[in-house]
C-alpha cells in the first residue's frame, strides 16, 4: 500500500515549493537497514519516551502496520543528503463523522536539534489536511517530554488535557498530555471534506 501513499505524497509536495530543507516519502522495505541503524544511534534520545523497531524482524512487523487507509508511515528526509531525519506516522485514521488521526513522530540523533522535525511534521500536517482531508490530528505526549511539547506548540497545536495511563511504554502505562490541531486551525481556507463525511 505504500505506492498509494507515495502517489499522494508526491501530489501534495508538488504544490509546496522548494524552500524546505526536508521532504517526505512513504516508508518502505528498502529503508530497513538505515532505519534500524538510526534507531540504535538514537536510543538515548528516544528513551524513555518510545520504543522503536531496532531489528530487521521488528522493522518488517512495523512496516506491515501501514495499510494507507488506517495507518500511514512517513519519513522526513533531508534534501541536502537524502538521509532520514525522522519518522512520522498518521495512525488510527477514522473516517465518517470523526475524520481524525493520531500523530506519532520521532527524530533521529544525527539530525536532531536542527529543526528538521518541525519542518517535517509541518509538511505532514499539510499533507494530512489537504491530501487526506482529515479534520483533526491528535498527539499524545508524556508530560516530561518537553522537546515534543515544544514542537507541537510551535506548530499551533492546542493543549486539551491529560489522559492517565493511556499508552503502554517502557514497561508501564504512562500518562500523556493530549494535543490537537484541526484543519480550521491550520488554514483559514479549509479543504473540501473527505467523501466519507456525512452531509449532515
Structure, described:
The structure is a single chain. The mean pLDDT is 92. A hairpin with a 5-residue loop joins strand 2 (72-78) and strand 3 (84-94). The longest helix has 16 residues, at 116-131. This protein has seven helices and seven strands. Helix 1 crosses helix 5 (116-131). With 200 residues, the chain is an alpha+beta fold.
What's the layout of helices and strands?
Blueprint: H1 2-13, E1 22-26, H2 32-41, H3 43-46, H4 56-63, E2 72-78, E3 84-94, E4 100-107, H5 116-131, E5 136-141, H6 146-154, E6 158-169, E7 172-182, H7 183-186
Parallel strand pairs: 4-5
Antiparallel strand pairs: 1-2, 2-3, 3-4, 5-7, 6-7
What separation lies between the terminal Cα atoms? Answer: 31 Å
Give the structural class.
alpha+beta
Proportion of residues in β-strands: 25-35%
Average per-residue pLDDT, rounded, comes to 92
The CATH homologous superfamily corresponds to Gcn5-related N-acetyltransferase (GNAT)
CATH topology heading: Aminopeptidase
Number of strands: 7
**Count of individual helical segments:** 7
Structure at a glance:
With 200 residues, the chain is an alpha+beta fold.
Amino acid at each position: 500500500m505504500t505506492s498509494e501513499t507515495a502517489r499522494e505524497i508526491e501530489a501534495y509536495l508538488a504544490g509546496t515549493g522548494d524552500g524546505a530543507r526536508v521532504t517526505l516519502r512513504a516508508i518502505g522495505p528498502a529503508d530497513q537497514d538505515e532505519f534500524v541503524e538510526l534507531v540504535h544511534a538514537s536510543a538515548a534520545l528516544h528513551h524513555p519516551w518510545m520504543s522503536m523497531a531496532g531489528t530487521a524482524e521488528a522493522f518488517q512487523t512495523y512496516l506491515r502496520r501501514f495499510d494507507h487507509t488506517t495507518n500511514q508511515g512517513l519519513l522526513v528526509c533531508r534534501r541536502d543528503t537524502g538521509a532520514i531525519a525522522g519518522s512520522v506516522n498518521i495512525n488510527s485514521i477514522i473516517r465518517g463523522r470523526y475524520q481524525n488521526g493520531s500523530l506519532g513522530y520521532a527524530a533521529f540523533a544525527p539530525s536532531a536539534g536542527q529543526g528538521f522535525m518541525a519542518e517535517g511534521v509541518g509538511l505532514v500536517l499539510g499533507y494530512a489536511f489537504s491530501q487526506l482531508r482529515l479534520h483533526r490530528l491528535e498527539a499524545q505526549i508524556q508530560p516530561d517530554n518537553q522537546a515534543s511539547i515544544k514542537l507541537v506548540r510551535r506548530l499551533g497545536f492546542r493543549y486539551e488535557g491529560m489522559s492517565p495511563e493511556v499508552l503502554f511504554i517502557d514497561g508501564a502505562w504512562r500518562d500523556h498530555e493530549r494535543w490537537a490541531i484541526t484543519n480550521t486551525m491550520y488554514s483559514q481556507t479549509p479543504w473540501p471534506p473527505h467523501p466519507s463525511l456525512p452531509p449532515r
